[in-house]
Amino acid sequence: QVQLVESGGGLVQPGGSLRLSCAASGSIFSINAMAWYRQAPGKQRELVAHRPSPATTNYADSVRGRFTISMDNARNTVYLQMNSLKPEDTAVYYCNFKMRNTSLYFGDYWGQGIQVTVSS
């Protein structure tokens, strides 16, 4: 059994910052890639940041230069540092891990989702 627990969301004023965390625990064999997605009301879920390998990160055009994805391998935790937040960043944010569990099953694992609201 693998669990992903997100934290760090909340309400912030435009121009402010938040850092989201997503900690994976349980029967983890290996982690191959991780990403953050978001879904705003009435919109489809979109990819925000992607880290397919330790040396590679990709960002949506709308967040490039403002958001940073990073990983603490020792803690199996992925972070999303969000700076210069805008009202259009308001959404539920989901972390995603592509990993293999101890039964050697490889698949997608998702966090529970966490609300980020940017408003004055």
Topology:
Layout: E1 2-7, E2 10-12, E3 18-26, E4 28-39, E5 46-53, E6 56-59, E7 67-72, E8 77-82, E9 91-101, E10 106-110, E11 114-118
Parallel strand pairs: 2-11
Antiparallel strand pairs: 1-3, 3-8, 4-5, 4-9, 5-6, 7-8, 9-10, 9-11
Index terms:
single chain, 120 residues, mainly beta, seven-stranded mixed sheet, four-stranded antiparallel sheet, 11 strands, elongated
Describe this structure in words.
The protein is 0% helix and 62% strand. The relative contact order is 0.32. The strands form 2 sheets. Strands 2, 4, 5, 6, 9, 10 and 11 form a 7-stranded mixed beta sheet that branches. It is mostly beta strands. It has strands at 2-7, 10-12, 18-26, 28-39, 46-53, 56-59, 67-72, 77-82, 91-101, 106-110, 114-118. The model has no long low-confidence stretch (mean pLDDT 96).
How does the overall form come out from the CA principal axes? elongated
- Strand content is over 45%
Q: What's the helix-strand series? A: EEEEEEEEEEE
User: What is the gyration radius calculated from CA atoms?
Assistant: 14 Å
